[in-house]
Design a protein that fits this description.
CATH class of the largest domain in chain B: Alpha Beta
Structural class of chain A: mainly alpha
Distance between the termini of chain B: 18 Å
Order of helices and strands of chain A: HHHHHHHHHHHHHHH
Strand order of the largest sheet of chain B: 3-2-1-4-5-6-7
Helix content of chain A: over 70%
Number of domains of chain A: 3
Distance between the termini of chain A: 41 Å
Strand content of chain B: 5-15%
Shape of chain A: elongated
Largest sheet of chain A: none
Number of domains of chain B: 3
Largest interface: A-B, 50 and 47 residues
Number of helices of chain A: 15
Number of strands of chain B: 13
CATH superfamily of the largest domain in chain B: Glycogen Phosphorylase B
Helix content of chain B: 40-55%
Number of helices of chain B: 19
CATH architecture of the largest domain in chain B: 3-Layer(aba) Sandwich
CATH topology of the largest domain in chain B: Rossmann fold
Shape of chain B: globular
Oligomer: heterodimer
Chain lengths: ~375, ~500
């Protein structure tokens, strides 16, 4: 059984600055000290005269800057080519020399001498503190096609593991369940249900707990919607939402098989109540047709859709359902010419031009059908 | 000196349940012995309420909080290089789920006689050598994990362990732990410190239960898996906790004198978790058959309905939701169905609310009733079938109690349910099945089994009778009490001493 290969990480040992003193830096340090002290002497002499009309001490200023530069250069060269941070150290010590004259130059050289052999990374305690403030950026969701490719590749990686489940050890089985949960599509949930029949208690208990957690989300939504319906029993939209939620629940694969009939009846009852309250609302009829289609009752869905289209010909969802029925008839009767005629008719119809370019929730088979009719670009 | 001290964690006398009832019946059944109880609790601030009336032979009750740790100010002690060298393998072993070096580490962690431990809790937790051990363990085991989270996991895992090494425990002739885990560790420490024997009884398997609980826990950080990769394992921090309990289990099994378990399945699992086979013995649970058979009071009058009951706490491990789903299915086939869920509802209020919502969503409000705590003796005689849908069980007493009243059972295939319903030995199996076994989490199977019993009253009666005979023959409380009485007396009277430490 293959497993994810661990990625090698950087050695946990911390890097230190070279502990050796590099003689290459020595002449520059001597020069820096001499320049710095002479510059200071010149400035002090000028101050002793005490004349305010003296010209700007260009010579002393030049030596002062040279001293700072030499200090930095000395450190830069002394640290050697292998030290990545030498430019930083050079600039740092130069600034010392520039800001504090001879004292700064001496201080900078001393800093370099004392820093040799010391770690150049934060100690672990600091790492801990720093880590507390690290925020992880949200992973960007790839667009549809990339997402699809990713899902396909993930599926290719997870599915063989499911086949191997009886041979997988407990952590691997749990990892499979986690991966399936993360993807959370119907097929994945069905696989989790399969995992729940594993004879090992650790595995089936984990799988059952995951199904329960996922089911809880639906249960919560159903509960709050049911409360709203209790408060506003005349609101047809709430009942449609409830019907759709139930359908989503049934389609999710989370619903226990033995309860499917009950939930179907419940869904229809919500929808019929809404239709009774708003008999003129053609969209409700279209929703009803789609629910029938979701249940696999395509001819029945098409019948309802045709009735709806008589009232409201622009309802795209109903039109697609009629097309779906035509398509399935053609396939089942194996008559390619019917298919082509149907396709031509569809393209000639003004309503069959725009189909959303992204899959909407609950649009699965219809969207696939649209792709078939109109090709990828129009779909 | 006390005769027997029980080490309890989340059970007797503050939490009701099967294990608590078992301890209570042992204490009550042996009035000649003096008992003590050490109860482990997460924090001193946790509210404790007695759920059982203390029998007069309970002479001492000590509550040990696990996480309230106060570092007493103390003078700086010299660096104990040798001590650290001996303690380090023990600590690192626990992080790997192994029990190594307890013997050598013990004198440095726990007092013995007048001698204080070499290392204080403060030194073990807050010193430079402790930091070194911690960082070494981090590099060796989890170099890719967040050090910050590792640090806190380590601290929360080990502080109670160090603290338990110093806990004051009443002196006794025998320590008896009813789980491994923290209380098993405390029993091992107390036994070693006072050179006293200790025995372990496992009803459910603590290691297994913690493993399941931790793997499902949302409060433990899990490193995000890389996209498209199958990360094997539960993540670093869940692994640390599981390894801790695995190591404590192994330590308890190593140190204990005997291990008593309820059924064959547990025995096999214990061996898998590192228990030496020669130490394990099976002593099944027992019920007071007469108390159930002679009870005259009835909770309800006959109504002509078909009554199905589930006796248990309304908590996820009992999988009440599967039972409710099965009721939906049953209700289509059984007219006048009455369903009672008999057990406390306040242990997991969110779960109870979810169950209530489900009852409402499935249109079962007129059929299903939650009774909360009741005297089950007055309920068993009025039920037609008992259902148990638990996803984990040891040896459920409720099935045996129901059998006392000739109540057949439909139970999920967990713990000892199969051997309780179908029998263990050939002689036992010859009594016939006392109900049906269904797969865990399978509402349809559960419903079908109940419907089958509803449709065949003769068979239902036959299975109830088989249950009654089975409990009378193999699961009587006096049999269980006799077994433990002889174990206790073998240690407390000094008659059998082969297990005692010298």
């Amino acid at each position: 059984m293959s497993r994810t290969v661990a990625v090698e990480i950087e050695s946990p040992r911390r890097h230190v600055l070279s502990p050796f003193f590099n003689l290459l830096g020595l002449p520059f340090f001597i020069l820096a000290v001499l320049c710095s002290f002479y510059s200071a002497y010149l400035l002090l002499m000028q101050a002793e005269v005490g004349s305010t009309t003296d010209p700007f001490p260009f010579w002393a200023f030049f030596l002062h800057n040279l001293a700072a530069f030499m200090t930095g250069l000395g450190v830069f060269l002394a640290l050697g080519r292998d030290e990545e941070s030498r430019l930083g150290w050079g600039l740092f010590t130069s600034v010392f020399g520039f800001l504090a004259g001879p004292v700064g130059v001496l201080g900078a050289i001393l800093t370099y001498l004392m820093a040799r052999g010391q770690p150049r990374q934060m100690p672990l305690t600091e790492v801990v503190k720093a880590e507390m403030f690290v925020t992880v950026a949200e992973e960007e969701e790839p667009d549809d096609l990339q997402s699809l490719n990713l899902r396909v590749s993930e599926q290719a990686q997870v599915e063989p593991f499911v086949d191997m489940l009886p041979l997988a050890d407990i952590p691997t089985a749990i990892a499979i369940v986690n991966r399936l949960r993360e993807r959370g599509e119907r097929a994945d949930i069905e696989m989790i249900r399969e995992v729940a029949t594993d004879p090992r208690p650790e595995v089936y208990q984990y799988a059952l707990s995951i199904i329960d957690k996922m089911e809880k989300q639906f249960a919560g939504e159903v509960y709050s919607l049911a409360q709203e319906i209790k408060e506003q029993p005349g609101d047809a939209q709430l009942k449609i939402e409830m019907a759709k939620l139930h359908i989503e629940y049934m389609q999710s694969g989370l619903l226990d098989e033995s309860l499917a009939d009950y939930y179907w009846e419940l869904t229809l009852s919500y929808l019929f109540e809404a239709m009774l309250a708003h008999p003129a609302n053609a969209e409700l009829g279209s929703d009803f047709a789609q629910l029938l289609s979701m249940q696999g009752l395509v001819p029945e869905a098409a019948q309802v859709a045709k009735q709806v289209l008589k009232k409201e010909p622009s309802l795209m969802q109903a039109q697609l359902l009629v097309l779906q029925d035509l398509f399935e008839q053609s396939v089942s009767e194996a008559r390619l010419e019917t298919l082509n005629t149907a396709r031509k008719t569809a393209l000639e119809n003004a309503w069959a031009v725009r189909v959303p370019n992204k899959r909407k929730p609950g649009m699965g088979p219809t969207y696939d059908l649209a792709r078939f009719w109109f090709g990828d670009e129009d779909a | 000196m006390l005769d027997v001290v029980f080490m309890c964690e989340g059970t007797y006398p503050f939490v009701p349940g099967g294990v608590s009832s078992w301890i209570h019946s042992l204490i009550e059944g042996m009035p000649e012995l003096k008992f003590g109880i050490v109860y482990l609790v997460p924090s001193e601030e946790d509210e404790l309420k007695f759920r059982y009336e203390m029998p007069p032979n309970v002479r001492d009750l000590v509550v040990v909080p696990l996480y309230d740790i106060v570092f007493k100010p103390q003078n700086k002690t010299p660096f104990q290089a040798a001590a650290w060298q001996e303690v380090t393998p023990f600590i690192k072993g626990i992080l790997r789920g192994e029990s190594v070096g307890f013997e050598t580490a013990f004198p440095h962690l726990s007092p013995r006689g007048d001698r204080e431990p070499t290392l204080t809790v403060k030194e073990l937790a807050n010193s430079y050598p402790a930091w070194e051990v911690l960082t070494e363990a981090y590099r060796e085991n989890y170099p890719r994990a967040s050090f910050n989270d590792f640090f806190w996991s380590w601290r929360y895992a080990f502080l109670p362990l160090f603290k338990l090494c110093l806990a004051e425990v009443p002196r006794a002739k025998l320590y008896h732990t009813v789980t491994t885990g923290w209380s098993g560790f405390l029993a091992a420490v107390a036994a070693k410190r006072t050179r006293t024997p200790f025995v372990t009884t496992e009803h459910g398997l603590y290691v297994n239960e913690r493993r399941i609980e931790i793997s499902q826990a949302d409060w433990i950080f899990v490193d995000a898996p890389r996209r498209g990769a199958l990360e094997v394992g539960l993540g670093t921090f869940k692994e640390i906790w599981i390894n801790l309990f695995l190591a404590l289990g192994k330590l308890c099994y190593q140190q204990t004198d005997h291990i008593y378990t309820l059924f064959e399945g547990n025995l096999r699992k214990e061996i898998e978790f590192g228990a030496p086979e020669e130490k394990i013995e099976i002593i099944p649970n027992g019920v007071n058959v007469e108390a159930f058979q002679q009870h005259q009071e009835r909770a309800l009058r006959p109504s002509g309905g078909f009554r199905v009951g589930l006796v248990g706490r309304v908590v996820p491990i009992k999988d009440i939701k599967t039972f409710i789903k099965s009721v939906r299915f049953m209700s289509a086939e059984i007219p006048n169905l009455e369903v009672y869920i008999l057990g406390p509802t306040d242990e997991d209020e969110d779960y109870f609310a979810e169950c209530q919502t489900m009852v409402e969503a499935l249109g079962l409000s007129d059929i299903v009733a939650f009774t909360d705590r009741v005297d089950v003796r007055s309920w068993y005689p009025i039920l037609d079938v008992q259902v148990l849908t638990s996803i984990s069980e040891g040896q459920p007493l409720v099935l045996l109690e129901g059998f006392c009243c000739g109540l057949p059972a439909v139970a999920s295939d967990v713990g000892a349910c199969r051997e309780i319903i179908y029998g263990r030995s050939a002689q036992d199996k010859a009594l016939g099945p006392a109900g049906s076994i269904t797969w865990v989490g399978n509402a349809r199977q559960t419903a079908e089994a109940v419907i089958a019993l509803y449709k065949n009253p003769e068979e239902r009666k036959r299975r109830g009778e088989a249950g009654r005979q089975r409990v009378m023959k193999y699961y009587r409380r006096d049999q269980m009490l006799d077994s433990y009485r002889s174990i206790y007396h073998s240690f407390t009277d000094g008659a059998v001493r082969e297990g005692a430490r010298v």
